[in-house]
């Protein structure tokens, strides 16, 4: 994986059948972001999740682990042992609520200029994706109802503007 890439792993419960597992039969270099998404499930301290099984050589090249779906005070560690990359919960996880800040992942721009902005949508919460050219007047680009997992807002910018800004908000935020 390249330094600007993201691999998303979803964990929906303590049973391995409820967890993504990526098996690599050759060598792997992991750079960029490893996005671990807790979808409708909060781990307990000491729970472990093995999600990358490498048969060949493993090399970590400055990758970062980003946790989505849990409150920011969740603590964990990632370790590679016997070809398996495992995340261990150091504290109990708490699911996000509507009172928590919106969790987003790196914004990307596609070759044709479209904006792609992943965020963790809390189930049942409405999210508004807005754009502005001056940071004072905001226009609604699209809306989405949270599904309890990682979702992506996309927008193809049109027109000749020198700067365009984006934000995600929920109902009641301004």
Largest sheet: 4 strands, mixed
The beta-strand count equals 15
Rg estimate, integer Å: 18 Å
What is the percentage of strand-forming residues?
over 45%
Q: Which shape, going by the Cα principal axes?
A: globular
Q: Could you tell me the mean pLDDT?
A: 88
Helix content: under 10%
Which oligomeric form is depicted? single chain
Order of helices and strands: EEEEEEEEEEEEEEE
Enumerate the spans where pLDDT stays under 50 for 5 or more consecutive residues.
Answer: none
Strand arrangement within the widest β-sheet reads 2-5-9-8
Measured between the Cα atoms of the first and last residue, the distance is 37 Å
Summary?
The chain has 174 residues and is an all-beta fold. It has no helices and 15 strands.
Question: What this model shows, in words?
Answer:
The chain has 174 residues and is mainly beta. It is built from no helices and 15 strands. The chain has strands at residues 6-11, 22-24, 28-30, 33-38, 48-54, 58-60, 64-68, 76-81, 84-89, 108-109, 114-121, 126-132, 139-145, 149-156, 165-170. The strands form five sheets. Strands 2-5-9-8 form a four-stranded mixed beta sheet, with no helix packed on it. The chain is globular and about 55 Å long. The protein starts with 5 loop residues before the first strand and ends with a strand. The relative contact order is 0.17. The mean pLDDT is 88.
């Amino acid at each position: 994986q390249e330094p600007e890439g993201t691999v998303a792993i979803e964990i929906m419960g303590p049973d391995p059948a409820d967890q993504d597992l990526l098996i690599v039969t050759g060598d792997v270099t992991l750079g960029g972001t490893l996005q671990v998404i807790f979808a409708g499930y909060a781990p307990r301290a000491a729970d472990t999740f093995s999600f990358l099984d490498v048969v060949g050589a493993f090399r970590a090249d400055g990758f970062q682990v980003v946790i989505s779906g849990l409150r920011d005070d969740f603590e964990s560690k990632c370790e590679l042992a016997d070809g398996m990359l495992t995340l261990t919960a150091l504290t109990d996880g708490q699911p996000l609520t509507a009172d928590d800040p919106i969790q987003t992942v790196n914004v990307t721009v596609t070759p044709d200029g479209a904006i792609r902005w992943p965020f963790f949508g809390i189930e049942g919460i409405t999210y508004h994706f807005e754009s502005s050219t001056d940071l004072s007047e905001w226009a609604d680009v699209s809306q989405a109802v949270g599904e309890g997992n990682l979702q992506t807002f996309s927008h193809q910018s049109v027109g000749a503007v020198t700067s365009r800004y984006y934000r995600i908000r929920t109902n009641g935020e301004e």
